[in-house]
Design brief:
Elements: E1 3-7, H1 11-22, E2 30-33, H2 37-47, E3 50-52, H3 55-59, E4 62-67, H4 71-81, E5 90-93, H5 100-107, E6 113-117, E7 127-133, H6 139-150, E8 153-157, H7 162-172, H8 174-191, H9 196-217, H10 221-228, H11 234-244, H12 247-270
Parallel strand pairs: 1-2, 1-4, 2-3, 4-5, 5-6, 7-8
Antiparallel strand pairs: 6-7
Length: 271
């Protein structure tokens, strides 16, 4: 049975593996190469996967190799793996900022390479992942990559590598935007007199409910906003204040800054 190998056993690898096992992948199909003994033990005990310190052994029979190590050590890890990749598996990188051209250069041979950009809610199987490849994947190969990332939430493909930077700005960094909004709402709610716990729970469940409505209703965000905004009412007063203070422009500036930083990171690895 061809295996799926993970190189690196940190948080992102753990959440992807957990999602896979919860969604029908056979634990015996998953190999993890990671140097930390405690990480190997935890992964093995929690998910029933096979772990080892030797990365070469982990990838030897793999149809897919998921590179889940920090960007700063990616080149060293990839170049060390090359002798064990003669069978040319699909290589998936979940590291931010490393372009396909750099991965191809380090691999030194033509093999299918996929860039994946999952986000932190993947840890609770509510993630959003953008995928890109320049390689011609067979239908079943693309379906398997989809199945891996759909095990931790939503996944989609983009047709230009530059759009991965847009994915980073929307969903990769996006959870932090919502956490910042929640912080502000909770702080102001307390200033308005609500107890801390009440302020936290009301804002959290409002965010959860709004997201579920947006996902399940099939109605656009603009239409949903109109439905809850009665003319002359309290919501309209709040929305008017947001608009007068340039909320859309604030988001445009912030997300553009994220894209620019992602482009800078890619240039660091392309040089």
């Amino acid at each position: 049975m061809s295996s799926i190998a993970f190189i690196g056993g940190g948080n992102m690898a753990s959440c992807i593996i957990g999602g896979m096992v919860s969604n029908g992948f056979v634990p015996e199909q998953i190999m993890v190469g990671t140097p930390g003994e405690s990480a190997r033990q935890q992964l093995s005990e929690t998910f029933g996967v096979t772990t080892m310190a030797d990365n070469h052994t982990a990838v030897s029979n793999a149809a897919i190799v998921v590179l889940a190590v920090k960007p700063k050590i990616m080149r060293e890890v990839v170049e060390d793996l090359v002798p064990a990749l003669a069978h040319k598996p699909i290589i998936i990188s979940v590291a931010a900022g490393i372009p396909v051209s750099a991965l191809n250069s380090w691999l030194g041979a033509q093999m299918p390479v996929v860039r994946a950009m999952p986000n932190t809610p993947s840890m609770v199987q509510s993630g959003a992942t953008g995928l890109f490849t320049q390689s011609s994947l067979a239908t079943e190969q693309r379906a398997l990559v989809d199945k891996i990332f759909q095990a931790i939430g939503y996944s989609c493909w983009v047709d230009q590598e530059a759009l991965i930077d847009a994915v980073i700005a929307v969903s990769g960094s996006g959870p932090a935007y919502f956490f910042l909004v929640l912080e502000a709402m909770q702080k102001v709610a307390q200033e308005l007199g609500l107890p801390q716990t009440t302020a936290q729970q009301l804002s959290l469940h409002t965010a959860l409910g709004a997201s579920r409505m947006a996902i399940e209703s099939g109605i656009s965000a603009a239409e949903l906003r109109d439905q809850v905004t009665s003319p002359g009412g309290t919501t309209q007063a709040a929305i008017k204040s947001f608009q007068q203070h340039g909320l859309e422009d604030i988001f445009r500036s912030a997300m553009t800054s994220a894209v620019e930083r992602a482009e800078e990171m890619s240039k660091d690895f392309s040089s």
